[in-house]
Amino acid sequence: MPVQYAFILPSTRCDIHCEHCFYETGHSERTEAVDYLEPLGPALDGMVRDGLQQVIISGGEPLLAPRLQQLVELCAARLVHVLLITRGELLDEQLLDDLERWGVDDITLSASQPSDRLRATANRVMFHSRYLPTLLTCLTRKNVDRAGEMVDFAARLNLPLLFTPAYIPEERPNFDELSLHRLDDQQWDELMETLTPWAEEAHNTGYLSVMRRFYGGQPEHPGFCAMGTAGLVIDADATVYPCFHRHDLPLGNLLTHTWDEIHARAQEHSPTLISAPCFGEHCLSMFVGQAG
Ligand code: SF4
Asked: Which ligand 1 atom is the nearest neighbour of the CA of 286?
């Protein structure tokens, strides 16, 4: 299977500090950003030759990255689909105009719950640009009771909506407060009543079933994972990984390795990773549209 999409992290910096974020929970460490734009160009050429279709620019908050324009333009020049995942607070009229001009094709807005602020952001994006943003809500014990409101909010604005469960490591002091492991049966029933119609409409019923079984104590191994085969991650320090969760398997670094070297190493690991041997709760956030 060719490498079809790459997550590119220009920076892991963020000013918001969402408590469920991998960097805040300690699951992942923020990396010191380096300027890897020069080697990224030839690497992208090789990736496109080998099947790259989409670049997903995330972070941290990518809108804080100092050379975002150059990064977007490098990717857009290769005619791949460029998706930007952002919290959106910084999106004003000028920046929206810039993102369109630089070549961002689509925007996903991370949103923990419906709010006037989110509504203003989504409306600003739709009014001042051609983007129809997808909303992405990370579910924690704190916001599950607002999942239905989030569905209504997205429906009212006619926007696509994704839900993913937050991964809170058990040793975190706020595990009880945030983890879906701490939902009681009634809360799960209510959540499933909300999420089932959403999943049916968004064709995510397989994903929802994996998620429910996982938190119900009957983990269902998905048997397939695209990370490491169709997808990979370029971290802010230019290290390339098969997955956000496999920092034990660095494939190389853009500053010191060519794409062909990185790709060869990716192909070594791909036959193992494709069967999702490392599947766990931390992966559920990556499984929209992949499992089931
Ligand atoms: S199974 Fe999970 S940890 Fe393993 S490669 Fe896939 S997403 Fe990453």
From this structure: 7
